Amino acid sequence: MRQPATIGIDLGGTNVRAGAVTSSGQLLSYSETPIIAADGPEIGLKRITRLIEQISAEADVQIQAVGVGCTGPLDRAAGTINNPYTLPTWENVNINQALKDHFSVPVSLENDADAAALGESWLGAGRGLSRVLMVTVGTGVGTGFILDGKIYRGLAGVHPEGGHIPIDPSGPQCYCGARGCLESLASGSGIAAIAQNRVLHTPSLLMEKADQNPELISAEMVIAAAQAGDALAMEIVQQSATALALGLINLVHLYLPDCVVFSGGVMHSFALYEPRLKEMMKIHSVMSPLDQISLLLAQLGQKAGIYGAARAAMLDASID
Questions:
Q1: Which of 190, 236, 279, 310 has the fewest CB atoms within 10 Å, measured from its CB?
Q2: Domain that holds residue 95
Q3: Is a pLDDT exceeding 90 seen at residue 116?
Q4: How many percent of the chain have pLDDT more than 70?
Q5: Do both 309 and 276 map to the same domain?
Q6: Residues 6+ apart with CB under 8 A from 211
Q7: Strand partners of residue 110
Q8: Is 140 a residue whose pLDDT tops 90?
Q9: What does the pLDDT read at residue 154?
């Protein structure tokens, strides 16, 4: 007899990952493949369908539901993806209906930050806690808040975009239309852009790392140079840490979570950021006990979104 399982999908701009997850959180099978979004949504949906069929066959599971975590913008209620920014050509794509028609099971669509937060709350760093705030600092900045095991949703069920909290109104322009929002100052892409500009006026090891081409400077290079003691890189990292701390203070003052879970490529260097985050949290603890909130690193890695998407589908379908 085939084992019942829910499929969790993590759909990003580069790859799509899928896993078959039991109601107890056991991952029975896993695989991933490039999504190549520019090929168009019809081909992309076929890739996702084949991936689901592959992992289901490998684990010999009976699919109960499918959960999809995807980069936004998206319309959760309608089940549509509207994201030509990181998924070129994917506008008004009804992924829910496509997967329902093929597999004849319930399908749930979630923002990828919410899915990752739910995964870490269910099985990762936030396990057993009632209020879990997750902050992902990678190419962008994403946030998700889990309350009593469920995703917190904003007006009309829309995902709150914590990455676009204004930090410095005189800061760099962000694609969201604002200046100096958290993402433009603390994300990997933001760090790289700031460094590419600053290195034109200040001597730095970064030019050597980038073969004398400022446009090749990445956040990884900046962090590596900071760890090597480069003055400019250290200054840029500290500025990004301060911006992240200010954004974090805004979030935790509102949510007062039990913990904050950090994930994303930039947070692989959490040791560079942690002292500044804790210092700022302590300074701003007069009105609320911010210094008592645990700052934790995510535990599930790239599979957090898979677990969270599967869990969201289980909750929607009332699967125990």
A1: 279
A2: 3-111+302-317
A3: yes
A4: 100
A5: no
A6: none
A7: 69
A8: no
A9: 87
pLDDT confidence bin for 13, thresholds 50/70/90: confident
In this prediction, residue 205 carries a pLDDT of 87
CATH number of the domain encompassing residue 21: 3.30.420.40
Which residues, other chains included, contact 177 with Cβ-Cβ below 8 Å and sequence gap of 6+?
none
- Residue 159's Cβ-side half-sphere holds a number of Cα atoms within 13 Å equal to 25
**Domain-embedded: residue 116:** no
| Domain shared by 152 and 55, yes or no | no
Pair (136, 174) in one structural domain: yes
Q: Is residue 163 part of a domain?
A: yes
Helix (H) or strand (E) holding 6: strand 3-11
Do 73 and 219 belong together in one domain?
no
Asked if residue 182 and residue 58 are part of one domain, the reply reads no
Q: Is residue 201 part of a domain?
A: yes
Least trusted range by pLDDT, from 143-152, 199-208, 239-248, 280-289: 199-208
**Alpha helices (H) in the chain, listed in sequence order:** 41-59, 95-103, 112-123, 182-186, 188-198, 205-209, 219-227, 231-255, 270-283, 304-317
pLDDT digits (tens, 9 = 90+) for 54-99: 999 999 999 999 999 998 889 999 999 998 888 999 999 999 999 9
Residue 175 belongs to a domain? yes
> Identity (one letter) of the amino acid at 212?
Q
Which strands sit side by side in the sheet containing 93-94, from one edge to the other? 74-75, 80-81, 93-94
Contacts 24+ apart (CB under 8 A), 38-45: 38/88, 38/89, 39/89, 40/89, 41/81, 41/89, 41/90, 41/93, 44/16, 44/87, 44/90, 45/93, 45/95, 45/98, 45/99
Q: Domain total for the chain?
A: 2
Residues 137 and 249 in one domain: yes
* Residues 35 and 165 both lie in one domain: no
Distance CA 182, CA 174 (A): 9
